[in-house]
Write the C-alpha cells for this entry.
Amino acid sequence: MTSIVFDNVLVNYGNGYNKQTGMFTCTIPGVYTFNYSLLPKMDSGDTALLLIKNGDKINYIHSINTAGNAQTASLNAVLHLSVGDRVWVQLQQGRPWTGGNSLCFQGYQLFSD
C-alpha cells in the first residue's frame, strides 16, 4: 500500500509536506495534530483510509457504502513527532472519491519540544 498524494496544497509552511510522496516529514520536534477525511465513491462497498506514522497504523476511517448512499467522515490524532518522523494517509481498501478536493489531510504543530 502507498500513501495518498494530496496535490492541492493550500499551505505548506516549513515545506514538511512532500507533494510527490504524500508524506509529511517532521523538521521541528514537538506535538502535532493531524486531520484527514474520506468520501467513498457511490457503490464502493468497504472503503478504508489509515493514518500512518513511520509505518505504524495510528487510526483509520472505515466506511461501508451501499447503492445510492454517500457519507463523509473525518478523524484526527495528536502525535508527538521527532525530527525525521513521517506521517501520511494510506488507502487500505475501496475507492475514495477524489474530485472537488473531497479528501483532505491537514496537520499543524501545537507546540515544540
Strands lie at 17-18, 23-25, 30-38, 45-53, 56-65, 73-81, 86-93, 105-112. The chain has a mean pLDDT of 87.
